Each structure stands twice: as C-alpha cells, then as structure tokens.
Amino acid sequence: MEVQLKNGVIDAAVIALPFDVPGINTMPLYDEKYVVMVPIDHAWAKRKSVNADELADENVLLLNSGHCYSHQVLQACPDLSRKGQVLQGNSLETIRNMVASNLGVTVLPCSAATERYTNPLVKVIPFQSPVPTRRIALAWRKSYARELAVSCVADAIRLIKSECLHMIKA
C-alpha cells in the first residue's frame, strides 16, 4: 500500500500509525481498542475483562510477523514478546478460526471482533484498564492536489458511531 500511495495508484488509505513514509501526509482519525478472543471453553470465557500481562502465559495467535498489526499488538502487550508463545496465521479470519478450534487466544482490534465476525465457539473479552489501543489515520501523498476530498473522507469516517472507536477531533 505504501508503494501504491507514493506512485499514485491510490489517492488515500486508512492506515494504523506509526506510518512514517517520506512524501506522505497522515491525519489521525481515531483510537481503536484491542480485545481478547478466546475459545468458548477457555478458563477466561466467563470473565468480564483480562489484564494484558496475563497473555504472556497463553498461546497467542497473531498474523505473520510481516504485518504491522502483529507489531502493534506486541507493542501494546510487551510481555508477549518477552515470554509469551506467539503462533502465527495468514489472515484475521484464519486467526479467528484457530481460536474457535481451541489452538490459542488472540488479540484483535475491536472492529475485527464484532458480532459479525464471531461465532458460538469463541468469546470476546475486553481488556482491563489501561486498555491497549491503536491509532488509525488517513494517509495521502503530499503532492495530492485534492485536499478537500481528503478532508471530506476524514469527516465521513469521523461520523462512524462505535463503542470500539474514540474519534479524534479535527
């Protein structure tokens, strides 16, 4: 996507920060909470919340290490990279299915764990405070002449109503 933005193949993209690419502007849009997804028969399935430090004692399923999402989760839950066992999958759908198959637990952006993406074999649990989050932004080429279009897209995104997202004022 970085190359597509720089080469003008796409005009703008919704990305997770940090995204420090020369020639690209970013505009923060919202902060998104992470949640934990566990198999329905997991010891945590009946809990109201999970502390991020507890993940280090679990098999945690994340995307392959080339994805920025995995890096963000490891930054948000630093004990994972020190002592946790991290297993990898190729897509969020694969990860959700691995959790449903009782292969481990995962940390997902809240929007990827809504009712639309879950099934009866998993349970989504919020984190205890401080809740790990990621910052989402709009990115576009500095040379892109249609600033108003970028602004309109940002305004439209900021109108989204979701308990998962905390919008950042323009």
The CATH topology name of the largest domain reads D-Maltodextrin-Binding Protein, domain 2
Global outline: elongated
Domain count, please report it: 2
What portion of the residues fall into strands of 2 or more residues?
Answer: 25-35%
- The beta-strand count equals 8
Task: State the helix count.
Answer: 5
Question: Strands, helices and their partners?
Answer:
Elements: H1 2-6, E1 12-16, E2 24-39, E3 59-63, H2 68-76, H3 79-83, E4 85-89, H4 92-100, E5 105-109, E6 122-126, E7 133-141, H5 147-158, E8 165-167
Parallel strand pairs: 3-4, 3-5
Antiparallel strand pairs: 1-7, 2-5, 2-6, 2-7, 2-8
Description:
The protein has 170 residues and is an alpha+beta fold. It has two domains: 63 residues, Periplasmic binding protein-like II (D-Maltodextrin-Binding Protein, domain 2, 3-Layer(aba) Sandwich), CATH 3.40.190.10; 90 residues, 3-Layer(aba) Sandwich (D-Maltodextrin-Binding Protein, domain 2), CATH 3.40.190.10. It has five helices and eight strands, in the order H-E-E-E-H-H-E-H-E-E-E-H-E. Strands 1, 2, 3, 4, 5, 6, 7 and 8 form an eight-stranded mixed β-sheet that branches.
